[in-house]
Amino acid sequence: MLTLLAVGGVTVSCAPPLDEKLRAAGVSFTVPANWTEQSFPGSSGVQIMCPPIAGGYDAYLFIEQLSRTEPQSPDDYLANLSNRRKANTVGYEERRRREGRNVHGVVYGLLEYFHVLNRIPSVEWAAVLPRTRLSNVYVYGCTTAATAERHLAIFYEFLNSIALAPSQAP
Fold this sequence. Notes:
Order of helices and strands: EEHEEEEHEEEEHE
Helix content: 10-25%
Mean pLDDT: 81
Number of helices: 3
Shape: globular
Largest sheet: 7 strands, antiparallel
Radius of gyration: 16 Å
Strand order of the largest sheet: 4-5-6-10-9-8-7
Strand content: 35-45%
Low-confidence stretches: 1-17
Number of domains: 1
Number of strands: 11
């Protein structure tokens, strides 16, 4: 059993199948206190859900590592994502795009945007963390616009918790 130290000093355990591929690839992270990990059908990633709030809308995080056929910088990936969202998403408004480095020295590109999802004003963010020349770790988060301030602080804390072990892959 893999044990993860959660935000606020609470320890959370998860069954190995949920994050086995991420852990084997050297990706570690801290699950926010009281949030739960779930498998995501058809994906090697892990979805992390906040406790349900009034109105039944849950905020979530999603993390996975994917390979690419050609190298792509975080900025190029986020520019393409922003263009796709602008073309296909109701009420799309880019709020922030930047590069950063977390406390573990992991470099990331971050896109934060507003849109309307199922008639609910929402805030989402996408982060891309270069892993190797041909793979990245992707992190997505979503919450309602009404709870964005509270949840975005947790999303940034999660992003700051991600550590990547050195990789031998190209």
